[in-house]
Specification:
Elements (H helix, E strand, L loop, with lengths): L1 H15 L1 H10 L2 H10 L2 H9 L4 H13 L6 H12 L1 H10 L5
Length: 101
Amino acid sequence: MQGTLINNLYQYVRENNPDVLIELEESGGVTKYLSDKVSAVDSLLEQLTKENKPTYIIEELCMGFLTEDLKPSRYNYILGILESEFEKKYNQFIESGIVLY
């Protein structure tokens, strides 16, 4: 279950907070960040498992806890404006690799 949570958290950060992911990649701390975050829900995970909650409920509750401190990304906000207001420049950034996620 921890592996699934790590995977889900990585995908969440990648989609919703790419600025955080870029910082973690630059510092080499992606694995530690994900492991530390998931370790923080060990007691919740254990409790829900003992209560025989379905897997999807456990994942949903744990992900809610894991992502509560991840605020909406400024990166995604700016990227959305760039894409809608400056489409030509946005496409150039995509092609050149400036926009990563």
